[in-house]
Amino acid sequence: MTPVILLTGFLGSGKTTLLQRLLRHPSMEGTAVLVNEFGEVGLDHHLLDQIDENVVLLKSGCICCTVRGEVADALANLHSMRTRGEISFERVVIETTGLADPYPVLQTLTAHPVLRSHFSNGGVLTTVDTVNADIQVTHRAEAVRQIAAADRIVLTKTDLAAPQEEEALRQRLLRVNPAANIITSMSSVETILADFGPLSFFTSSKSATQNHICGPGCGHDAPTKCDSLTDQHRHHDETFGVTSFSLEIEGGIDWTMFGTWLTLLLHKYGDRIFRVKGILAIEGEALPIAIHGVQHLIHAPTHMDHWPKGMDQSGSKSSHLIFILEDIEPEKIRRSFHAFMNVDTVKAAAR
Ligand SMILES: Nc1nc2c(ncn2[C@@H]2O[C@H](COP(=O)(O)OP(=O)(O)OP(=O)(O)O)[C@@H](O)[C@H]2O)c(=O)[nH]1
């Protein structure tokens, strides 16, 4: 499977600037990039060979393609060219337009009858303009969806913002998407790409606990400790009804029951579940299973070969689930989980 990294972010937030840096890095050799226009990326001086009207080979060993129409068609075209031996690549980066909703592209990767067998979600990288994001997030649903979809957020233009502005923005972004790992564009390319993928929240060196946002400016109380479902914590950003919350369940859970519950949940509420990610301790299994889904779709679960740091302390295993929801009361999901999975009573977490 060829991983596809989605590079998204609001208009002028620095996607192209970041893409140019990424493409210059040796570790990105062998990347095929999908953009709207060659010109936008300013690649002229990198151009090596025009393969066809929409595809050029770059000096860096990368391929650049323009998307005329559907992203799915552009990906299918790349795949066919590779099958015919005309080009080779080992990963794809798609730079969306600044007003794009990233979810349809993610769905294409999992739902398209042909593409789903050849391409996988390699993670969503979202650029956020530190100077302008507050107003964009307040007024533009696309900006919120781009942040909600992110596995990693790259704050740009931090050089133009005061440290307290940056900190306030970080808190706001984490209220929309507590699973996102936030770094600045000052970071090295190695840092930007380190452990990057749909589960980077769980697997990056920054553990879930470190990334947790309770603290000054959070505006929430500490999560309530419960008997079995130990930690249910939610964050709500007033904008566009986007809420995120997490569940931590002590001990192993029944995989079949969980699969049925999640299928039913997504069937009913998939349109409004932007993201679900989790690392699950399964009854009878020594190692965890990672799941991640986008709206109605659940990607194939992955058997992990180790427990992420800090999640298997002193042998007491627990499952972690994170949801990013639009206009759904988290309590509904918590109650349904509780009833279906037959776990002990849970107190609602204080907000
Ligand atoms: N000072 C500063 N300027 C930046 C930074 N990142 C990007 N810029 C500038 O912001 C402007 C927009 O950057 P682009 O990379 O074109 O942004 P984009 O998201 O690709 O823009 P669209 O494709 O129009 O949505 C350019 O003038 C960049 O030089 C940054 O970290 N600091």
From TrEMBL:
InterPro entries hit by this protein: CobW-likC_sf, CobW-like_C, CobW/HypB/UreG_nucleotide-bd, P-loop_NTPase, Zinc-reg_GTPase_activator
Domain CobW C-terminal: 242-341
Pfam families: cobW, CobW_C
GO cellular component: cytoplasm
Gene3D superfamilies: CobW-like, C-terminal domain, P-loop containing nucleotide triphosphate hydrolases
PANTHER family, sorted: COBW DOMAIN-CONTAINING PROTEIN (PTHR13748:SF62), COBW-RELATED (PTHR13748)
SMART domains with a match to the protein in the record: CobW_C
Function: Zinc chaperone that directly transfers zinc cofactor to target proteins, thereby activating them. Zinc is transferred from the CXCC motif in the GTPase domain to the zinc binding site in target proteins in a process requiring GTP hydrolysis.
Gene Ontology terms for molecular function: hydrolase activity; nucleotide binding
Originating species: Pacificibacter marinus
Gene name in the database record: yjiA
Name the UniProt record assigns to this protein: Putative GTP-binding protein YjiA
Record keywords, A-Z: Chaperone, Hydrolase, Nucleotide-binding
Highest taxon, organism lineage: Bacteria
SUPFAM superfamilies attached to this UniProt entry: Hypothetical protein YjiA, C-terminal domain, P-loop containing nucleoside triphosphate hydrolases
Family: Belongs to the SIMIBI class G3E GTPase family. ZNG1 subfamily.
Catalysed reaction equations from the record: GTP + H2O = GDP + phosphate + H(+)
